[in-house]
Amino acid sequence: MSSNKEIQSDPGQIEKDNERLLSAFEQWLGDAGLSDATVDRHVTNISFFLEHFLQYYEAVNARNGAEYVAEFLGDWFIRKAMWSSESSIKGNAASLKKFYAFLAERGEVEQHVVKDLNQTIKAGMPIWLESMRRYMDVEDDDW
Length: 143
Fold this sequence. Notes:
Elements: H1 11-31, H2 36-58, H3 69-80, H4 86-105, H5 111-141
Helix pairs in contact: 1-2, 2-4, 3-4, 3-5, 4-5
Protein backbone atom coordinates (compact mmCIF):
# COMPACT_ATOMS: atom_id res chain seq x y z
CA MET A 1 0.00 0.00 0.00
CA SER A 2 1.30 3.44 -0.87
CA SER A 3 1.80 6.11 1.72
CA ASN A 4 -0.58 9.04 1.77
CA LYS A 5 1.92 11.13 3.71
CA GLU A 6 3.57 12.55 0.60
CA ILE A 7 0.97 14.91 -0.80
CA GLN A 8 3.06 16.74 -3.39
CA SER A 9 4.98 14.86 -6.06
CA ASP A 10 7.08 15.43 -9.13
CA PRO A 11 4.76 16.43 -12.04
CA GLY A 12 6.49 13.95 -14.37
CA GLN A 13 5.94 11.13 -11.91
CA ILE A 14 2.34 12.20 -11.34
CA GLU A 15 1.75 12.06 -15.10
CA LYS A 16 3.20 8.54 -15.35
CA ASP A 17 1.14 7.37 -12.37
CA ASN A 18 -2.00 8.93 -13.88
CA GLU A 19 -1.51 7.11 -17.18
CA ARG A 20 -1.04 3.80 -15.38
CA LEU A 21 -4.06 4.35 -13.13
CA LEU A 22 -6.32 5.51 -15.96
CA SER A 23 -5.48 2.45 -18.02
CA ALA A 24 -6.15 0.13 -15.08
CA PHE A 25 -9.35 2.03 -14.21
CA GLU A 26 -10.61 1.67 -17.77
CA GLN A 27 -9.97 -2.08 -17.62
CA TRP A 28 -11.66 -2.34 -14.22
CA LEU A 29 -14.77 -0.55 -15.50
CA GLY A 30 -14.90 -2.76 -18.57
CA ASP A 31 -14.51 -5.88 -16.46
CA ALA A 32 -17.46 -4.68 -14.38
CA GLY A 33 -19.61 -4.94 -17.49
CA LEU A 34 -20.21 -1.25 -18.12
CA SER A 35 -20.92 -0.16 -21.67
CA ASP A 36 -18.12 1.33 -23.74
CA ALA A 37 -19.83 4.74 -23.65
CA THR A 38 -20.10 4.65 -19.85
CA VAL A 39 -16.49 3.55 -19.49
CA ASP A 40 -15.37 6.35 -21.80
CA ARG A 41 -17.38 8.92 -19.85
CA HIS A 42 -15.90 7.87 -16.49
CA VAL A 43 -12.35 7.72 -17.87
CA THR A 44 -12.73 11.15 -19.50
CA ASN A 45 -14.06 12.66 -16.26
CA ILE A 46 -11.26 11.17 -14.18
CA SER A 47 -8.64 12.11 -16.75
CA PHE A 48 -9.78 15.74 -16.53
CA PHE A 49 -9.69 15.64 -12.71
CA LEU A 50 -6.24 14.05 -12.61
CA GLU A 51 -4.51 15.79 -15.48
CA HIS A 52 -5.97 19.30 -15.38
CA PHE A 53 -6.85 19.81 -11.75
CA LEU A 54 -4.68 17.62 -9.53
CA GLN A 55 -1.55 17.44 -11.65
CA TYR A 56 -1.24 21.08 -12.66
CA TYR A 57 -3.44 23.06 -10.30
CA GLU A 58 -2.61 21.26 -7.04
CA ALA A 59 0.45 19.10 -7.97
CA VAL A 60 -1.04 16.21 -6.00
CA ASN A 61 -1.04 12.54 -6.91
CA ALA A 62 -4.30 10.66 -7.45
CA ARG A 63 -4.05 8.75 -4.16
CA ASN A 64 -4.17 12.03 -2.25
CA GLY A 65 -6.69 13.72 -4.49
CA ALA A 66 -9.88 12.71 -2.71
CA GLU A 67 -9.45 15.49 -0.19
CA TYR A 68 -9.58 18.03 -3.04
CA VAL A 69 -12.88 16.84 -4.53
CA ALA A 70 -14.98 19.56 -2.85
CA GLU A 71 -12.68 22.25 -4.20
CA PHE A 72 -12.77 20.64 -7.63
CA LEU A 73 -16.54 20.11 -7.97
CA GLY A 74 -17.70 23.05 -5.89
CA ASP A 75 -15.50 25.74 -7.41
CA TRP A 76 -12.76 24.96 -9.92
CA PHE A 77 -14.85 22.78 -12.25
CA ILE A 78 -17.69 25.31 -12.25
CA ARG A 79 -15.37 28.16 -13.25
CA LYS A 80 -12.88 26.38 -15.52
CA ALA A 81 -14.78 23.74 -17.49
CA MET A 82 -16.75 25.35 -20.33
CA TRP A 83 -19.16 22.40 -20.29
CA SER A 84 -19.85 22.56 -16.58
CA SER A 85 -23.49 22.09 -15.69
CA GLU A 86 -25.52 20.53 -12.93
CA SER A 87 -25.54 17.20 -14.78
CA SER A 88 -21.79 17.31 -15.42
CA ILE A 89 -21.13 17.95 -11.72
CA LYS A 90 -23.26 14.92 -10.84
CA GLY A 91 -21.57 12.83 -13.53
CA ASN A 92 -18.12 13.77 -12.30
CA ALA A 93 -19.14 12.95 -8.74
CA ALA A 94 -20.24 9.47 -9.87
CA SER A 95 -16.95 8.98 -11.71
CA LEU A 96 -14.94 10.08 -8.68
CA LYS A 97 -16.82 7.63 -6.45
CA LYS A 98 -16.04 4.81 -8.86
CA PHE A 99 -12.41 5.85 -9.23
CA TYR A 100 -11.71 5.95 -5.50
CA ALA A 101 -13.57 2.65 -5.00
CA PHE A 102 -11.24 1.23 -7.67
CA LEU A 103 -8.19 2.65 -5.86
CA ALA A 104 -9.38 1.16 -2.56
CA GLU A 105 -9.97 -2.23 -4.15
CA ARG A 106 -6.37 -2.14 -5.42
CA GLY A 107 -5.06 -1.14 -2.00
CA GLU A 108 -3.93 2.26 -3.28
CA VAL A 109 -6.05 4.13 -0.70
CA GLU A 110 -7.59 3.14 2.60
CA GLN A 111 -11.31 2.30 2.68
CA HIS A 112 -12.01 5.29 4.93
CA VAL A 113 -10.92 7.56 2.04
CA VAL A 114 -13.83 6.21 -0.03
CA LYS A 115 -16.23 6.60 2.87
CA ASP A 116 -15.09 10.18 3.50
CA LEU A 117 -15.30 11.00 -0.21
CA ASN A 118 -18.86 9.65 -0.45
CA GLN A 119 -19.88 11.70 2.59
CA THR A 120 -18.23 14.82 1.15
CA ILE A 121 -20.08 14.38 -2.13
CA LYS A 122 -23.43 13.72 -0.43
CA ALA A 123 -23.10 16.76 1.84
CA GLY A 124 -21.58 19.03 -0.78
CA MET A 125 -23.75 18.28 -3.80
CA PRO A 126 -26.65 20.63 -2.93
CA ILE A 127 -24.16 23.43 -2.23
CA TRP A 128 -22.21 22.80 -5.44
CA LEU A 129 -25.37 22.72 -7.54
CA GLU A 130 -26.50 26.00 -6.01
CA SER A 131 -23.06 27.48 -6.73
CA MET A 132 -23.41 26.36 -10.33
CA ARG A 133 -26.84 27.99 -10.60
CA ARG A 134 -25.54 31.25 -9.13
CA TYR A 135 -22.49 31.20 -11.38
CA MET A 136 -24.59 30.57 -14.48
CA ASP A 137 -27.02 33.36 -13.47
CA VAL A 138 -24.14 35.81 -13.18
CA GLU A 139 -22.74 34.65 -16.54
CA ASP A 140 -26.17 35.05 -18.18
CA ASP A 141 -26.58 38.55 -16.70
CA ASP A 142 -23.25 39.60 -18.23
CA TRP A 143 -24.52 39.10 -21.77
